[in-house]
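Running this now, will post back.
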Amino acid sequence: FYDFTVMRPHVRLAGGVTREVVWLSNDFSAAVIPGAERDLILGLGPEPHLRWRTFCGAVVELARAYESELIVTLGGFLSEVLYSRPVEVSGFSSDAEVIERLALTPSRYEGPTGIVGVLGDSCRQAGVLTASLWASLPHYIAASPNPRAALALLLQLRRLLGVGVDLSEIEQQAADFETRVNEAVAADPKLAAYVRELKKREFAH
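Update: finished.
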């Protein structure tokens, strides 16, 4: 599924001596959460470059094999938002109850799509319920990963799935991240001026 001229595999030292190649992959793991109504399957990995329909078919097949009730995808997109505001999470779902429970605004976007859009369509055709949550990220802050965005997504995911997950570690990471961003903006006059302009636009609306 990957073009290794676009995204290279990594070499690492095993035991500090032997070199081994770590290939790109999407990994799926079982998660049993005490007290939860359901178990989870967590999938993590980079967007594939090739054979998207085959890839999505494999994910749908996995969901069917384990009788999954819902496939949820998480992501972020760059936007003209103030970094100091709470992270906005938007999304959509093929389940009207999910849309109502999370107060999601259905997207009216038409245009090029990524693997999330293709996977959502594959699920729709296969009759598998889906939901997709997206965090809005400030385009002028080049930071990846973004713990504030991850926390906002996980809070919505916890609400959606009704599972009790301790988020204290990522809450601390998000607070530390916000401090670093504040310091970076304060140290960059051009960036600070741009942020002030965004605030003026926000108040104007």
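The two ends are 44 Å apart (CA to CA). More later if anyone needs it.
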